[in-house]
Amino acid sequence: PTPCKDPTPSGDPTPRKDPPPCKDRSHPARLGVEVEVVEGGLNDLPGGTARMVEELFARDGTRDVFFLDSATPERTRFSYMGGMGGPLWRRVSYTLNEGEDDDDDDPGGTLTVEDRRGSTSVVGCPSIFDWITGQASLFSGFDDRLALLPFEFWGGPIGYLGYELKCQTGGQRAHRSGNCDACFFVVDRFICADHHTGDLYAVAVYDTGVGGHG
User: Fold this and answer.
1) Which of 8-12, 101-105, 184-188 ranks highest by mean pLDDT?
2) Can you state the percent helix, strand and coil of the chain, rounding each to 5?
3) pLDDT per position as a tens digit, 46-56
4) Using an 8 Å Cβ cutoff, are 92 and 111 in contact?
5) Which of 106, 155, 159, 214 makes a 20 to 30 Å CA pair with 79?
């Protein structure tokens, strides 16, 4: 993505080197997946997917719960849900750096990553889109069995991007947010509900280099 402005001051004969892309040090070397299918499990469930989320993930609150629900089966076939997951699960936030004024903002930011044990790392990150690209690559087509599934979400980041991140895609940042500018869960355990067949899929993504699947 294009930064908000040229970081080289006027009259400086030596251009600054671009900072290295941000790296989440929790990256596993290679992923594997386990899938369990309950055929027709949704058809016999009173309350449907909303009841599933309430019973399986939200009994103790909803801080780390996600629910991407299909509005209607005709428009969207699948719903996804989950909570705090396994060893690869992360809570990730990103905050843009602040300059002296809105026209002089550093387009980079700070990436804060917390795992399920509460261990936190903070790294500089010139663009949140670098991090998203790395995660998308990691969670894409990593196991041949994924091609057999009827859906195309296999874990990875779920969250939101704030409006002011336009400064990392060629726009100008006009305001400052009181919240973080992006926030994600990195998902490694989730349930997918197929509203066409009624089947339920329990998916677990794991690091093949670590013994056990957590």
Assistant:
1) 184-188
2) 15, 30, 55
3) 999 999 999 99
4) yes
5) 214
CA–CA–CA angle 205, 133, 85 (5° rounding): 25
Q: In angstroms, rounded to a whole number, what is the distance separating the alpha carbons of residues 69 and 59?
A: 18
Q: Residue 71's pLDDT is what? A: 75
**120-125 sheet: strands from edge to edge:** 120-125, 109-115, 90-96, 182-187, 156-161
Is the Cβ–Cβ distance between 122 and 114 less than 8 Å? Answer: no
DSSP 101-146: SGGG--S-EEEEEEETT--EEEEEES-HHHHHHHHHHHTSS-SGGG
Q: How many CA atoms lie within 13 A of 135 on its CB side?
A: 25
The candidate with the shortest Cα–Cα distance to 35, out of 209, 200, 207, 214, is 200
Instruction: Identify the pLDDT of residue 85.
Output: 93
- Which amino acid is located at 188 in the chain? D
Q: What is the DSSP string of 54-65?
A: HHHT-TT-STT-
